[in-house]
Amino acid sequence: MLDLNTLRRDFEALKTRLQYRAQPELLDQFAAADERRRAAVTEIEELKRQRNELSAQVAQAKKAGENADEAIARSKEIGQQAKALEDAVQAADQEQSDLLARIPNLPHESVPAGPDESANQEVRRWGTPRPMDFEPQPHWDLGPKLGLLDFERAAKITGARFAVYMGAGARLERALINFMLDVHTREHGYTEVLPPFAVNSQSLFGTGQLPKFAEDLFHLEGTDYWLIPTAEVPVTNLYADETLDAEKLPLKLTAYTPCFRSEAGAYGRDTRGIIRQHQFQKVELVKFALPETSYDELEKLTADAQDILERLGLPYRTMALSSGDMGFSAAKTYDLEVWLPGLGQFKEISSCSNFEDFQARRAKIRCKAASDKKARLVHTLNGSGLAVGRTWLAVVENYQEADGGVVIPDALRPYVNAERITPAGELV
Predict the structure, then answer these.
(1) Range of the domain at 58
(2) Which of 70, 80, 93, 296 sits at 20 to 30 Å (Cα–Cα) from 339?
(3) Strand segments (E) across 369-405
(4) Nearest 10 degrees: CA dihedral of 163, 256, 313, 381?
(5) Nearest 10 degrees: CA dihedral of 257, 260, 266, 267?
(6) What is the per-residue pLDDT for 207?
(7) Pairing label, strands 225-227, 198-200
(8) Which of 48, 72, 45, 46 is nearest to 58 (CA)?
């Protein structure tokens, strides 16, 4: 979350920066609560001054042997008034604290200003979609034809927006997970983590999913456990309430997990295939960095995710998201969008973000070097390295052939132990 004192002190300037980010009513409510608080604090100070004067009068009257009952009574009355005002200050503080938990992060100065994705900016592009002398099939047609995906049986055992990977399809999914983890740990310098797939409410608050996005999550009834929407939540919160050694930063972690999302806010979008599912697999990249180097680390993290796409030979573009299109906790985000010939468009496959100290303040994650007088908040970053299901469908669509088979990319062949998926769905 944002620093409360900074928001109070620089409210108008920060309100301008939050123009496309925060709901105006939240900021208006914050300002109204702050005005009530300031007025109450000012009145309390005035009452304290009056009470001090009365105390002096009482002392002087007693010293002179005079009756001080009226001054004493007035002093008690002022004390009661001051107590009521102090309660009002506490109530305003609590209201501001509750509102602060729902106000998004400030965009970095380099972020394009704009209300939505129309203001996003392309910053790089890699690869060229290969020409196809046949009509490319979308994965929701090609997958079932090859026996790689089964949506009907998934709907039978669970419901809509779930999929069963079968045969070569399951093998390809597992190969992608292992390939990504191997590259990130062996070559990019990340330490692998296998966290729990359920977390408590405090962890979701720490990374910014609660309280604002409860409806997008799956809650386990009768418990304080929630299924994770991304490995970002458990991995970032590994160090909640801890002070890291600043001299050992950046700390780089990667994790494979399934992810669970209700997609409450995505009604009607990407309903076909496996683009937007209630359960999907992802390999996540998480960093804890010094504030002065976090934007260099964002560029490196983004490059690590891009490297996976390039090794797989998948054309993509990198987009700098506008202030209105970024996620709640992000200060700056790059989206990687992979080319999907079956859809004839680019589709997001990774979001790489720097949250600065927004999550660290919520989760109380600090760092301190031996030479530092006091600890300071770290900067946290994360990104998909990559979303496995979307990488799976990108491989299937980009490497499909006219006869209905699919070529296995060179980078994955050691993991699949095959070069091709035949039109019959067999690995050969």
Answers:
(1) 4-100
(2) 296
(3) 376-377, 379-387
(4) 120
(5) 140
(6) 98
(7) antiparallel
(8) 72
pLDDT tens-digit map of 76-113: 999 999 999 999 999 999 999 999 999 999 999 999 99
* Residue 264 pLDDT greater than 90, yes or no: no
106 is a domain residue: no
State whether residue 347 is helix, strand or coil: strand
Q: Which residue has the tokens 């980010």?
A: 21
Q: For residue 250, is the peptide bond before it cis, meaning its omega torsion is within 30 degrees of 0?
A: yes
The CATH number for 78's domain is 1.10.287.40
* Residues 311, 374 share a domain: yes
Is 255 contained in some domain?
yes
Q: Phi and psi at residue 202, in whole multiples of 5°?
A: -65, -35
- Do residues 215 and 93 share a domain? no
The per-residue b/e assignment along 209-242, b for 16 or more CB within 10 angstroms, e otherwise, is: bbebbeeebebeeeeebbbbbbbbbbbbbbbbee
Check whether residue 214 and residue 363 sit in a common domain.
Answer: yes
Cα separation, 226 vs 216, whole angstroms: 11
* pLDDT tens readout for residues 120-152: 999 999 999 999 999 999 999 999 999 999 999
The answer to whether residue 111 sits within a structural domain is no
105 located within any domain: no
Query: For residue 271, what pLDDT is reported?
Result: 77
Of residues 112, 89, 107, 94, the one with CA closest to residue 2: 107
If residue 294 lies in a helix (H) or strand (E), which one and from where to where?
A: helix 294-311
Looking at the fold, whether 227 and 78 belong to one and the same domain comes out as no
Spatial contact of 287 and 189, defined as CB atoms under 8 Å apart: no
What gap in Å lies between CA 178 and CA 109, rounded to an integer? 37
Of the two residues 22 and 392, the one the predictor is more confident about is 392
The answer to whether residue 266 scores a pLDDT higher than 70 is no
Q: Report the candidate in 168, 205, 242, 233 with the shortest Cα–Cα distance to residue 396.
A: 168
Give the pLDDT score at 268. Answer: 60
321 lies in the same domain as 401: yes
Say whether both 18 and 147 belong to one domain. no
- Which of helix, strand or coil describes residue 327? coil
Q: 77 and 141, same structural domain? A: no
| Partners of 316 in the β-ladder | 126, 338
